[in-house]
Amino acid sequence: MHIFYEENLQNALVKLSPEESRHCTKVLRLKAGDEVGFTDGKGTFARARLVDVNAKSTTAAITHRELKPKRNFHLHMVVAPTKNIDRFEWFLEKATECGIEEVTPIICAQSERTVVKPERLKKIMLSAIKQSQRAWLPRLNDTVKFKDFINNYSSDTPSFIAHCDEGEKNPLRDAYNPGKDVMIMIGPEGDFSPEEVQLARDKGIQAISLGQNRLRTETAALVACVAVSFMNGEL
Amino acid sequence: MHIFYEENLQNALVKLSPEESRHCTKVLRLKAGDEVGFTDGKGTFARARLVDVNAKSTTAAITHRELKPKRNFHLHMVVAPTKNIDRFEWFLEKATECGIEEVTPIICAQSERTVVKPERLKKIMLSAIKQSQRAWLPRLNDTVKFKDFINNYSSDTPSFIAHCDEGEKNPLRDAYNPGKDVMIMIGPEGDFSPEEVQLARDKGIQAISLGQNRLRTETAALVACVAVSFMNGEL
Predict the structure, then answer these.
(1) What percent of chain B has pLDDT over 70?
(2) Min Cα–Cα distance to chain A from B69, Å
(3) How far is A171 from chain B (nearest CA, A)?
(4) Domain boundaries, chain B
């Protein structure tokens, strides 16, 4: 079943955008009577039948609507965008498929990329919730500098910073208790600077490791998401 | 520390290939006396100092050599290459970073891609072991048709097939016992056909699920790798 995104699913009829109408007819070759799904990214998942199909304006009638619960924990990933933006976008796509509630792109001392395009990132997340049939669109925060993030950070949520330097670190599996909200910070290609790690620790953010091997930024970030999902019984 | 791949690390001196020599001088700008690492992909990890650096032929002297143990389980992923080969290559890179012992590309009834270039895939795996400082290069088997794979498959290894259809399925977490070798099959964009799932089950391969959400082929394959690593205490 193909899933569409539509912000408003409260009415009985849903009108697809011109872009989605075209996709519906030209690519998917759907016809009146075919069943489709809708997500509003705010918890509602609906089934519908296409009633009027054409390349400019397609309409669907909702047959079933359900409110899907949020996960019983909130995963906030604070991740440095990669030099090659494809790698960050890939992380965002995969993390959205696997489940994530909030993302903050963070610019660090050793970041080689300092700009991201939020419109493009939001498109990727929308496409990923449709693909994976998720009802909740992750929240994408504004890109922020490490020091501004840390200076403003104050939370009772268990919070972790993963880095590759020596020093006291617990594995994520020991540091995180399932069922709890969690914030995890992942640094850029050059890693967090020792000063950044110290600033985070001064704020009560615990240093963690993600195993013996040196993972790329986007790999480490996704591994953390999957591990948190696994620990919460989702896989 | 930058890591190079070199098949033979038995001698005291290692001569880098012309390509790696060029990379060493032009991109990394390394100098005589700088420390580098080597992996032979067969368990040996070495530290060395560059003794003679130039763009055509660079030599390093090994200072320390260690044989890294294999993991105490063998993970064999049997994965359908994706229509967009980037996605399969991405899986291979990430799975190599996260740890995997063997990969078999498999062509299924609903596969949209039936050809892969093994040389290119091997390059990606080599690059990923260097990047993640792994001592073992995964084995890449020849691409094989689903029916040929299943007809020849006979193993005491716990073996699983992940699919999205209805039917009796256990979550991977319940199906797999940590410490054991494991083989996991992941289908193409159109999923395994019901007939393929049945053929696998007839061979004693258990059906598993990877959660409630519809994951892309490459996402499902990586999630399975990370879950197996996590269950074995690697994260």
Answers:
(1) 100
(2) 13
(3) 6
(4) 3-67, 75-231
- Is the pLDDT at B235 greater than 90? The verdict is no
The size of the A-B interface in CB pairs under 8 A is 79
The Cβ of residue B122 has, within 10 Å, a number of other Cβ atoms equal to 14
Long-range contacts of A120-127 (CB under 8 A, 24+ apart): A120/A89, A121/A89, A121/A92, A124/A89, A124/A92, A124/A93, A124/A96, A125/A92, A125/A93, A125/A96, A126/A5, A126/A41, A127/A93
Give A1→chain B minimum CA distance, Å. 11
* List of chain A residues whose C-beta atoms are within 8 Å of the C-beta of residue B231: 230
Structural fold of domain B3-67: Ribosomal Protein L25; Chain P (2.40.240)
Residue A151, exposed/middle/buried by CB under 10 A (0-12, 13-18, 19+)?
exposed
Minimal-distance CA residue of chain B relative to A215: B132
* Average pLDDT across chain B, whole number: 95
Q: Three-state SS for B14?
A: strand
- Write the class of the CATH domain B75-231: alpha beta
pLDDT of residue B152: 95
Whether B34 and B50 have beta carbons less than 8 Å apart is answered as yes
Q: Answer yes or no: do A212 and B223 touch at CB < 8 A.
A: no
